[in-house]
Design a protein that fits this description.
The protein is built from 11 helices and 13 strands. It is an alpha/beta fold and about 425 residues long. The strands form 3 sheets. Strands 1-2-3-5-4 form a 5-stranded mixed barrel. It has a 5-stranded parallel β-sheet with strand order 7-6-8-9-10, sandwiched between helices. A 3-stranded antiparallel β-sheet has the order 11-12-13, with no helix packed on it. Strand 8, helix 6 and strand 9 form a beta-alpha-beta unit.
Length: about 425
């Protein structure tokens, strides 16, 4: 049997006769390796068909043109970052890798990124315009103004027939029926829309038709929202003397008006909620503020009562007693110090007097005589005889005792 030739891999020609037949898995693996190696990254343009989001978050769909169809898959993480809502019939440009789903023997593209066909050029244009206007300071946070908390008038610039105007009017009527709404009808897409939007912005400012302006529309494709990224519209929003809320599309949509406006709302309904506090919400905040005020006043009164209580006669007397107590203590201490000092001085004086008395007593001749001594003088007076050699036998002498005197005559002298 003549062998049937198979694709080359690593320089080897595979056949069935010489070796063995390949299993389906082996053949599929060879095809998978060849395809994935040859097409690791491709960009393909086609129309979406059979768009099928799975509960897991992955998305399965087909890309087709007039004569061919390619199966595609986009996993949850990548699909959640899409900037638009794909649908059957949408012309897209997908970037990814070719792979083979071996279980079914089908090749497919695993999409990493996807944009509407031609959308990349629009995004590049918008990014360049964004950088230009940002450099001029039109998007600076410092120039943005606070939105009035309780506006009495709201000017709405949008399509008079779209869902956005109905949502805004319904929300305002439900939350705060007292707000006066002025609808300024305008085109919101197409070549004539930018001029219409600018004209209505100028009208709202010229006649002061609102305390705040809401400008926007419902959701749409990037091309549908281009009017709100027009340079003239962005400059008019930035130049508005009345605070502007931009409410363009859904939450994932964006426009350059969002950056120039004083506040961006994710949807038109959200913009209406931002300018209309509900009556219940206002009552709750007023009640909370009243409760806070009452609590604050009660605390202040309690503190005042405590302070005033300190000025009662008993409290004042006690306070003066506390003030006088240190002085009284110092007076008592000083008095005790004086008494103690006087007593110590008296004791010292008595001691010195006693010492002096003892010295004087010891030096008193009479005291000496009182101890049995006597003073001898020659008869007739003169100094006391201190030396026996000053006398001669037969001399008359006077002897003075502690009590009284006596006369005598010397019988002998012993020098």
């Amino acid at each position: 049997m003549t062998p049937s030739l198979l694709p080359m891999r690593a320089g080897v020609e595979y056949g069935m006769a010489a070796d063995r037949p390949l299993s389906v898995s082996e053949l599929t693996g060879m095809i998978k390796g060849s395809l994935e190696g040859a097409f690791p990254a491709v960009m393909v343009e086609g129309e979406i068909s059979n768009w099928r989001p799975a509960p897991s978050g992955h998305v399965y769909f087909n890309l087709k043109d007039s004569s061919s169809m390619l199966q595609a898959v986009m996993f949850r993480g990548r699909a959640s970052r899409l900037s638009f809502r794909p649908a059957d019939g949408t012309l897209v440009r997908a970037t990814g890798a070719i792979t083979v789903y071996a279980a079914r023997g089908q090749y497919q593209i695993v999409v990493d990124a996807m944009e509407k066909s031609g959308e990349g050029d629009i995004l590049a244009m918008l990014e360049a315009r964004k950088r230009k206007l940002a450099a001029e300071g039109l998007f600076d946070e410092a120039r943005k103004r606070r939105i009035p908390a309780f506006p009495s008038r709201v000017a709405v610039i949008t399509s008079p027939t779209g869902a956005a105007v109905r949502d805004i009017v319904n929300v305002l009527a439900r939350r705060n029926a007292g707000i006066r709404v002025t609808i300024l009808p305008s085109l919101v897409q197409g070549d004539e829309a930018p001029a219409a939007l600018v004209r209505q912005l100028e009208t709202a400012n010229a006649y002061r038709l609102g305390d705040v302006i809401i400008i926007g529309r419902g959701g749409g494709s990037l091309e549908d929202l281009l009017a709100f990224s027009d340079e003239a519209v962005v400059r008019a929003v930035a130049a508005s003397a009345i605070p502007v809320i931009s409410a363009v599309g859904h939450e994932i949509d964006w426009s350059l008006c969002d950056y120039a406006a004083d506040l961006r709302a994710p949807t038109p309904s959200a913009a209406a909620e931002l300018v209309s506090d509900s009556a219940a919400s206002v009552r709750d905040r007023v009640a909370a503020a009243a409760s806070t005020l009452e609590d604050g006043m009660r605390i202040r009164l309690d503190r005042a009562r405590l302070v005033v209580r300190g000025f009662s006669p008993e409290a004042l007397e006690l306070r003066f007693e506390r003030i006088l107590q240190p002085f009284r203590q110092r007076f008592d201490d000083a008095k005790e110090d004086i008494v103690r000092g006087a007593s110590d001085a008296c004791l010292a004086a008595r001691h010195r007097l006693a010492t002096a008395s003892a010295v004087l007593y010891a030096a008193d001749p009479m005291a000496v005589l009182g101890r049995g001594f006597a003073v001898v003088r020659r008869a007739g007076g003169g100094p006391a005889v201190r030396d026996a050699s000053a006398l001669s036998p037969g001399d008359t002498i006077d002897i003075t005792f502690a009590r009284g005197k006596a006369g005598a005559r010397t019988e002998r002298v012993e020098p």
